[in-house]
Write a structure and sequence with these properties.
2 domains; DNA-binding; 67% helix; Multidrug-efflux Transporter Regulator, Chain: A, Domain 2; mainly alpha; 6 helices; disordered N terminus; homodimer; two-stranded antiparallel ribbon
DNA sequence: GCGCCTGCTTACGTTAACGTCAACATGATC
DNA sequence: GATCATGTTGACGTTAACGTAAGCAGGCGC
């Protein structure tokens, strides 16, 4: 079944409400991941594409979510953490004041955690820099000896 | 068995070659991890403490390695990656020129990878900042309405 | 001498994040 | 109308990173 066919079958249809639709293979290739992974994220509730003739059809929004998922993974977050982050990106336009405040608080929490992680990385980078400097010095010394 | 006893039994001994020794519980408490985790890291070859009367005795160097392990984890690295990083910190003072160049190359590789990760984090922080700004604006609007 | 505490090893259990494989459906193509 | 590419849903396997439990040993306090 080719859900992409949906797009081909309706080529000139501007699709007023939603824009372009993507197939699962399309996304998998674009992001360089397996189909199984994408379905797995769906099982975990991180994605919820529409179904067209049994096949999965992803909107631009879904695609963006997938991007966020992968970015989260690149950062070292677990899928559970990523799920929390993703819940911050919705259409919570009709949230009550309480809800909005809650969301902002969650964003702050995620922010501080990410920043902590960032600082750890910066520290490791600094340490690696020192080690490298050390090695370079001994290397330079060895070379001086060799030349003379 | 109390390997810490070793330290207590030899209290005033300046221990010329090696400094202070730490017990496993000591390290576990200091770093807030389980004994099992520490032993696990040893099984994986990330730590290799000396044995005193069957008990594990950690030097300051071992302790530092454990710190690096945990920092690596905080950054989102796998134990395998951490192992690679740790191998850069040894006493490779007597390395040949080739070996030193190789090590420096590995450091560079690790550095660029970490920096990529760092940039990803920075990007996520920026996105979260935008989301927060959005929420704050809608929140402010709602409050203005409420006040009037 | 007897618990008690700390430590060791061995073995099995667990969770996350997928990979792999089988069996089946369907639209396109020859 | 048979084949093929692409899709679907299970079900099971796998790796990493530990947790948990069982059983045993050696000091210490009383």
């Amino acid at each position: 079944m080719k859900q992409i066919a949906t797009r081909k079958i309706l080529p000139a249809t501007p699709a007023p409400t939603e824009g372009e639709l993507y197939g699962i293979t399309e996304l998998a290739q674009e992001f360089g991941i397996s189909l199984r992974a994408i379905r797995f994220y769906e099982d975990k509730g991180l994605l919820a594409p529409r179904r067209i003739n049994g096949g999965r059809a992803y909107t631009r929004r879904d695609r963006a979510r997938l991007g966020l998922i992968l970015r989260g993974k690149a950062v070292g977050m677990s899928l559970a953490e990523i799920e929390h982050i993703l819940s911050l990106y919705g259409d919570h336009g009709e949230g009550h004041v309480k809800q909005l405040e809650y969301l902002i608080g969650r964003i702050d929490a995620a922010t501080t955690e990410l920043d902590t992680r960032r600082r750890h990385i910066v520290a490791m980078l600094a340490e690696l820099g020192e080690v490298k400097g050390q090695l370079q010095r001994t290397l330079a010394a060895k070379r001086r000896v060799k030349k003379k």
